[in-house]
Amino acid sequence: MAPVLEMRQLVKRYGTTVALAGVDLEVSEGELVGLLGPNGAGKSTLVKIGCGLVRPTSGSAHVCGAPAGSRQARAALGYLAELFRFPGWQRAGEVLELHQRLTGSSGGAAERADLLELVGLGRVGSRRVDAMSKGMQQRLGIAQALVGSPRLLMLDEPTSALDPAGRRAVRRILEEVRARGITVLLNSHLLSEVELVCDRVFILLGGEVIAEGTPDDLAASRGVEIETDQGTKKWPSARREDIPGLVRELVGAGERVFAVRTAKPTLEDVYMEAVGGEMG
Amino acid sequence: MSTAWVVARHTFTECTRRKIFVIVPIVTAGFLALFALGAHYAFQSVSGTVRTGPAQLVDETSLAGSTLVGLSMFVTLFLGASLGIFLTFGVVRGDAETGVLQQLVVRPVARSGLLAGRFLGASFLCSTYVAVLYLACVTVVGLIGEWWPTSVVLPGLSLVSGVIVVIALSLLGSVFLSALPNGIVVFMLYGAGLFAGLLVQLGEGLRSPSVETTGRIVSWALPFEALYQSGLNSLTSSATGLTRVVVQLGPLGGAQEAGPGLVLWTLVYLAGVGALALFVFNRKDL
Lengths: 280, 286
Fold this sequence. Notes:
Helix content of chain A is 34%, strand content 27%. Chain A is of the alpha/beta class. Chain A has a 6-stranded mixed β-sheet with strand order 6-7-8-3-9-10, with helices on both faces. A 4-stranded antiparallel β-sheet of chain A has the order 2-1-4-5. Chain A is globular. Chain B has a two-stranded antiparallel ribbon with strand order 1-2. In chain B, a hairpin with a 2-residue loop joins strand 1 (49-53) and strand 2 (56-59). Chain B is globular and about 65 Å long. The A-B interface holds A 48, 51-55, 71-72, 74-75, 77, 79-81, 83-87, 89-90, 94, 98-99, 101-104, 141, 144 and B 1, 3, 6, 10, 13-14, 17-18, 98-100, 102-110, 283, 285-286.
């Protein structure tokens, strides 16, 4: 099966500034993929190229087999921009209705009710956008992106302006979206969010992919630490399976073992290591 | 349902919700009341045909009526153009900068549909407004002074066409400029157009062909002005003698006969402006 999103040697230059320097990226059906990187790494540019908002300088991008930006590609995706705004005079239901018309969705009132329910706005469908909190608008934005049952959902920093409760709500929505079989590309600064929900992660720096893998792969075990009466001893290359043997060895040598830990970095550790502490 | 229709309807709903259909009529009613008052006193002070010299007759009623309607056309064009500019000056870059446009453009619709929808929506609203205001002014003058223009329809059509040209220019500008600079530029172009009309009058008065030609070129380069002049001209086309000369001096820009060439030029102009706006918009990174 063709990947839902496929980018090959994608380059984007703005004058002399290189936003993307030959990115290869592939997202398969049903995956929830995270895009990480400091400010200016090229994440938003990459997402915008996927949506057809920005044209690449060279390379190719395809959505569900169609060139990114083509009508067919846009029909297959839903998108929420990092800085988006719906007209304040519109009601939540009207925002969705407008996008239904533009998408050609025949879902009608049932689809609108389902999407508002999904994002926890079931009771405020008739509320004006300018009377909604930032968190509610963000959730409405996700509902809007889901109009027309897209195969690919591209979210650019959907939780950046939210409080912890709002972030948790968005995380729950993403899990529900994944359960519906929708592929998601999530561009986020919030490493803990990405670690919690994403199947795979791409880390971008200077317009290039510098690391890729599942959060578990990226944050793979970095050795074993054993605390004994002689102090804490480290085996940097040891794995979880090596622990019984190491403990047996230490006990055999007459040491008393108090605690055993696998040294597992967080995604944040991996990220900071990968980007070299670079600030955006 | 076509994209253009969806977007045009959206523009209409926006105007309703933002109370534009409440505020504009209230302000317009104020203007009409003032206009009626002015017309009342103007006609009170005229007394039919007067002799201004040997064998020279001026129909004061025609003079007052055409001056008042001409003045109202100037105001109508200004109000219609202002409404059109405010409805469209931020359509592309302005809306992109506030994050409104991106959510619409990623939908499986042609960018031309979005642009056409905003153009149609604004044009429909402003044309209706201009037509209603123009007819109201003509009616006020007709009822108070018992003077009716030679042609009621042609000046009205000229005004409507002029406002549509201004809207097209505003949309084109919005592809290149943010909302504020675009609004300023379009208003300055509007002013330049009106000045071109005065230049033509000045050139005629001073018998300076170069000044007159310059004014005419600018009027046609910004055809809302040529349309306005043509509208003024058809307003008083039946006036004769000194009355016609005096009337043609006109308030705020002289009347000029344009002919069918202006209609053709306006259509070509609108098509060109639209094509350029679309060409740039289609290639624009958002």
